[in-house]
């Protein structure tokens, strides 16, 4: 607000330098007398309402006074109040600081701010200050601070209330517990085993993952918290250690490992052993079998060629001729072996010739 003091020139001599002073309710404003006929008040409040006038004084100490005027400062009501949270969005982790900021778009004078918790309005704090914004802090939130909040601002022209703002305090999940439930006392091949994973605490939603020897089996979500189950149809390969993991976005937690031994029935054991032996034999003897088949095929082929070509037929047994050494007595057959072949099974066919030389007569050369 600017106050201007105007005086007629006839009131003083032309060379006179007047001084001016402004008053409100009989009290001089600012520094008192000044050569400037204007006075600027940067900010006025309702308390600045009152009766104003000014005086002009010349060098010969002649003083003239203006008529009084009444100035009424009108306050602007608080309007458009809102509540904001820090961090934004109303999501805060357990143990962190929560700041509730109450804001007014406009309003003059001292404004009283109040914060409330819950729809029924449990008062948290009230403060008065000359500004359009005020803060309320909760240094370390707990799960009980999850609630709806609102604030009220009033500068004497009537309260203005903000909308409700939801605040959710989220806590990390605890270490989950894994339990295995089999139909009988022992887990047998073909049984369906239930894997149950549950974290005792932690803000939902919670995502659970199941592992067998650190290999992921599957996952399931719990939108409202609690635990989840995963069913597994057992095979002999399912023996080993199992674990589960819980995660709600604030850091995953892994359970302790739980061992599971899958029992194979006797009949299944025989079939499994036979299968394993067959697989082992096939893996080990496959090259040998292929080689034998190749040899058999080649032998058959060569046999067919020999049957078509007489010159290639096997040699006939050796003709035996008696040999004599200066004696009419023939030589005894000695053992000679040839053409020993495995024909089939364990039968062995041989051609044997036996010759033996008789003793020479005494005195003969």
What gap, in angstroms, lies between the N and C termini? 168 Å
Average pLDDT score: 82
Gross morphology is rod-shaped
User: Mind telling me the C-alpha Rg?
Assistant: 57 Å
Percent of residues in β-strands:
35-45%
- Percentage of residues in helical conformation: 10-25%
Sheet bearing the most strands, described?
6 strands, mixed
Q: Can you count the helices?
A: 1
**Multimeric organization:** single chain
Tally of extended strands?
28
SSE string, helices as H and strands as E = EEEEEEEEEEEEEEEEEEEEEEEEEEHEE
Structural class: mainly beta
Q: Which spans have pLDDT < 50 for at least 5 consecutive residues?
A: 311-334
Task: Give structural notes.
- With 365 residues, the protein is mainly β.
- The protein has 1 helix and 28 strands.
- It has one helix spanning 266-308, and strands spanning 2-4, 19-24, 27-28, 38-40, 50-57, 63-65, 69-71, 79-86, 91-93, 98-106, 111-117, 122-129, 133-138, 147-154, 160-161, 165-170, 177-181, 187-188, 192-198, 206-212, 215-222, 227-233, 240-247, 253-254, 258-260, 262-263, 333-344, 347-355.
- The strands form 8 sheets. Strands 9, 11, 12, 14, 15 and 16 form a 6-stranded mixed β-sheet that branches.
- A hairpin with a 2-residue loop joins β2 and β3.
- The termini are far apart.
- Mean pLDDT is 82; it is low at 311-334.
């Amino acid at each position: 607000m600017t106050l201007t003091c105007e005086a007629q020139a006839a009131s003083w001599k032309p060379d006179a330098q007047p001084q001016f002073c402004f008053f409100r309710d009989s009290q001089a404003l600012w520094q008192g007398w000044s050569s400037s006929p204007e006075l600027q008040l940067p900010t006025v409040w309702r308390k600045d309402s009152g009766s104003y006038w000014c005086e002009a004084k010349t060098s010969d100490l002649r003083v003239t006074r203006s008529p009084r005027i009444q100035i009424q400062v009108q306050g602007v009501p608080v309007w458009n109040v809102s509540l904001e949270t820090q961090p934004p969005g109303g999501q805060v982790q357990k143990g962190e600081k929560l700041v509730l900021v109450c804001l007014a778009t406009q309003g003059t004078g001292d404004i009283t701010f109040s914060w409330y918790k819950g729809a029924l309005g449990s008062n948290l704090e009230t403060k008065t200050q000359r500004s359009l914004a005020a803060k309320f802090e909760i240094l370390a939130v707990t799960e009980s601070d999850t609630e709806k909040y609102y604030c009220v601002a009033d500068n004497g022209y009537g309260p203005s209330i903000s909308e409700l703002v939801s605040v959710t305090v989220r806590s990390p999940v605890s270490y989950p517990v894994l339990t295995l439930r089999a139909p009988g006392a022992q887990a047998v091949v073909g049984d369906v085993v239930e894997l149950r994973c549950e974290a005792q605490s932690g803000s939902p939603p919670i995502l659970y993952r199941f592992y067998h020897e650190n290999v992921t089996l599957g996952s399931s979500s719990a939108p409202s918290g609690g635990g989840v189950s995963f069913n597994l149809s057992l095979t002999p390969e399912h023996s080993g250690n199992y674990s589960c993991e819980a995660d709600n976005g604030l850091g995953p937690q892994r359970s302790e490992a739980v061992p599971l031994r899958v029992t194979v029935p006797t009949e299944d054991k025989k079939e499994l052993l036979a299968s394993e032996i067959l697989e082992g034999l096939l893996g080990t003897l496959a090259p040998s079998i292929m080689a034998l088949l190749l040899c058999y095929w080649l032998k058959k082929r060569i046999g067919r060629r020999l049957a078509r070509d007489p010159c290639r037929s096997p040699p006939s047994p050796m003709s035996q001729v008696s040999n004599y050494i200066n004696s009419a007595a023939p030589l005894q057959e000695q053992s000679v072996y040839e053409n020993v072949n495995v024909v089939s099974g364990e039968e062995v066919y041989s051609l044997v010739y036996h010759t033996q030389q008789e003793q020479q007569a005494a005195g003969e050369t």
